[in-house]
Amino acid sequence: MNFTTEPLEPLRRNVPAEYYRNVLDNYKYKPDSQWPSLHGKITIDGEPRLVKFSLDGGIVTEIEICEISETDTFVGISMSQRPKKFQKLLAQAGIKSAIDIDGIDLEDHPVSFFIEGGKLASICWK
After folding, report:
1. Which of 9, 36, 38, 57 holds its CA 20 to 30 A away from the CA of 50?
2. In contact, 105 and 97? CB cutoff 8 Å
3. In what order do the strands lie in the sheet with 2-3?
4. What is the pTM of this model?
5. Which structural domains are found in the chain, ordered by start?
6. For the sheet containing 119-125, what is the strand order?
């Protein structure tokens, strides 16, 4: 899948958690926890992927695809690169970012990439 600076349809921010009841498989909503959340599976390019959502007042504020596939790209850049190489390729594409041990944050777009085990593990739209 080629991800961009906006979540792919039908994933949307600023919608009620209930919107996802018919979008996700294995829909689980935890409205009463200290950090209300929602998660489930969605099929992307024929592959079921775990998706987590952060909520504020029952409204989705962040979307995280928790499973990066070997064939996934971000604006055409392979996400299977090592994090520093991925950041370098983002810079070559004119996309500014900051990197630390936990992830890469884009400076001009509400997108983050989380790093686990020395590789990109997920993408999050904030």
Report:
1. 57
2. yes
3. 2-3, 73-74, 77-78
4. 0.94
5. 1-126 (2.60.460)
6. 25-30, 37-44, 47-56, 59-65, 119-125, 111-116, 103-106, 97-99
